[in-house]
Specification:
Number of strands: 0
Shape: elongated
Strand content: under 5%
């Protein structure tokens, strides 16, 4: 048996008495809130530092910095209006 479509679900919900509809909506909202993961940095409006995220990879950070400095030295990053 195939899962009901959204339209079929809505039609079934509309056939319920209003108090059961409201209880169903409240329960669905409650379950959705419980299933929604919360960010790990709640209350901290600052974004995590890229260097902090790579604290365990100092060689990788050094390599990235080297590549960036080379690119800055050889590439014109933006046009200059004259």
């Amino acid at each position: 048996m195939a899962a009901p479509t959204l339209h079929e679900l809505l039609a079934a919900i509309r056939r319920l008495p209003i108090d059961e509809r409201l209880r169903l909506i409240e329960q669905a909202a409650h379950e959705a809130a419980e299933d929604t993961p919360e960010p790990s940095h709640v209350g901290d409006s600052r974004a995590p530092s890229l260097l902090g995220l790579m604290a365990d990879e100092p060689d990788l950070v050094d390599q990235m910095c080297s590549i960036v400095y080379q690119a800055r030295g050889t590439t014109r990053m933006r046009t200059v209006d004259e």
